[in-house]
Amino acid sequence: MGNLEFGLTMIVVGMGGTMIVLGLFAVLMALLKKVFPNREDEAAE
User: Fold this and answer.
1) CA angle in degrees (0–180, nearest 5) for 42-30-39
2) How far apart are CA 17 and CA 22, in angstroms?
3) For labeling, which of 10, 16, 19, 44 is most exposed (least CB within 10 Å)?
4) What is d(CA 45, CA 25) in angstroms, rounded to the nearest whole number?
5) pLDDT truncated to tens, each residue of the chain (45 aa)?
6) Residue 42: what pLDDT?
7) For residues 23 and 4, what is the distance between their CA atoms, to the nearest angstrom?
8) Per-residue b/e over 13-27, b at no fewer than 16 CB within 10 Å?
9) How far apart are CA 19 and CA 26, in angstroms?
């Protein structure tokens, strides 16, 4: 595997890993919003 192929592989794997982690964070945030809903009436006081 040459330098170009290795570099392109690292770019694809790195971007794919980043997108997977961001997707997991989005799912985690959605779950946390359901577990701890924002209560507007208590937050204003």
Assistant:
1) 5
2) 9
3) 44
4) 30
5) 899 999 999 999 999 999 999 999 999 999 999 999 887 776 555
6) 62
7) 29
8) eeeeeeeeeeeeeee
9) 10
User: Got the DSSP string for 1-45?
Assistant: --HHHHHHHHHHHHHHHHHHHHHHHHHHHHHHHHHS---HHHH--
pLDDT at 11: 96
Cα distances (angstroms) measured from residue 13 to each of 24, 35, 45: 16, 33, 48
Please give the model's pTM, rounded to 2 decimal places. Answer: 0.66
> Token digits for 25?
């964070």
